Amino acid sequence: MKKITFILLIFFVLTSCISKKSAISKAINTTLASSFYKNQFTGILVIDAKTKDTIYNQDSHKYFIPASNTKIFTLFAALKTLPKKAPAIRYINIKDTLYFEGTGDPSFLHPYLKDSTALNFLKNQSNLAFVSGNFQDEKYGAGWAWDDYQWYYSPERNALPINGNVVVSYKNTELVVSPPYFKDSVIEILHKDNRNEFSNIFYYPPQSKDTLETPFITSLQTSTSILEQALGKKISTVVTMPIGNKETLYGIETDTLYKRMMHESDNFIAEQLLFMAASELKDTLNSNLIRTHILENELQDLAQQPRWVDGSGLSRYNLFTPQNMVNVLDRLYVMVSEKRLYTIFPAGGLSGTLKNRFAGDKQPYIYAKSGSLSNNYCLSGYLLTKSGKTLIFSFMNNHFRESLSDERLRLEQMLHTLRDNY
Q: Which of 31, 11, 5, 18 has the alpha carbon at shortest distance from 413?
């Protein structure tokens, strides 16, 4: 009798699961069959986080431009490589001179992070020599739009960022400029651009009350001059570090960097995290080094090999599949506690780029990373159902001509279907 009861219980459970999946598939299929999706490309994969059962799958093996969903891979690489506190600089003290090099740490005098660990350390040294030769990469990522040079989301990359590699200008009775080094380079004039394309000449509208964040052109001379002014002392420059055992100065908590990268979709922090991760492997700061290492050593079993070219997703050269995204999200779910993971990811209706969308009834039901470029929108992360299940999902939408708000609205309807029916 007990055996028959057990068999019947299993039968009802399986029937219920099949029924739920069938209802979900029917609802999502109906949405995707509408004329709205006729001329765009959509890939979807949804799995149960515990059982790994596939709840819904459409073209999840196909490649899509991920936009800022790329940051999910960057987060994985950083969590696999970086310690709890960010390596701020590496240095060797020889006789009376401290030789130091950057690790790519983006927090040094960052306008929002405001970490002063390295600044205070360097202030206490007598003679300083900045070692510049460890950066072996380009200022911009492959496939970045050339005309983004003046916009806040596209700062140049380097070994020792200062102030997020942007000039911050705002009015407070008079014009305030940070770093102060650029005070005389900001011209109050109505201009179609924020900065001259080929020089560090910036424009601020006289009647504006906005805060402008404009990337500056980086160079060894510019970085050294800004640092000299901040420290109040001269700094010599050399190309290579003297022979010896380098020490590391640790600064800000890396989770602080991860949260800003994911919540604000901060492209600069994403790019610099890859350099920091590379610095943990070798002396060379090169983002391809860490991307290759992660793909070959940690993600070698992905069903489809992604094309991963930058840390932020600014490049349209990036190609990932929904299966790629769900695979890495699943690994993160196993690696990191739910509490910590859901703090790092934006929460629907509550924080970051999802603050004004995908809200739950009383509490968030979505913890996910969005990604948008013109005509592309992706959302990948974790969904908490009303029945208490956790789903891992990736919705990737490319090449649509409809409005982004309409795209999000239909995606939200599909997410509600998953939340309410599984």
A: 31
Quick one: 329 and 397 in the same domain?
yes
pLDDT band at 13 (very low <50, low <70, confident <90, very high): very low
d(CA 78, CA 81): 5
130 forms beta bridges with: 100, 237
Element (H, E) at 169: strand 166-172
Give the pLDDT of residue 17: 56
Which pTM was predicted? 0.94
Annotate 228-249 with three-state secondary structure: HHHHCCCCEEECCCCCCCCEEE
- Neighbour tally for 150: CB within 10 Å: 16
Residues 6+ apart with CB under 8 A from 356: 349
The count of structural domains within the chain is 2
Q: Please choose, from the candidates 109, 55, 80, the residue with its C-alpha nearest in 3D space to the C-alpha of residue 385.
A: 55
CA nearest neighbour of 272 among 168, 169, 141: 141
- Give the residues across from 307 on adjacent strands: 319
Cα torsion for 193, 194, 196, 201, to the nearest 10°? 140
- pLDDT digits 0-9 by tens, 291-303: 999 999 999 999 9
Is the predicted pLDDT of residue 264 greater than 90, yes or no?
A: yes
- Of 63, 39, 44, give the one whose Cα is nearest residue 319: 63
Specify the amino acid at residue 233: K
The answer to whether residues 400 and 39 touch, using CB atoms and an 8 Å cutoff, is yes
Residue 131: which pLDDT band, with cuts at 50, 70 and 90? very high
Longest dimension (CA), the chain: 88
Q: Do 298 and 191 belong together in one domain?
A: no
Q: What's the whole-number average pLDDT of the chain? A: 95
DSSP string, 351-406: SGGGTTSS--SSS--EEEEEEEETTEEEEEEEEE-TTS-EEEEEEEEES--S-HHH
Residue-wise pLDDT tens digits, 162-199: 999 999 999 988 999 999 999 999 999 999 999 999 99
Of 82, 20, 26, nearest to 51 by C-alpha is 20
Q: Is residue 218 one of the residues assigned to a domain?
A: yes
| Nearest one of 113, 107, 109, 114 to 87, comparing CA atoms | 107
Residue 326 belongs to domain spanning? 22-76+285-421
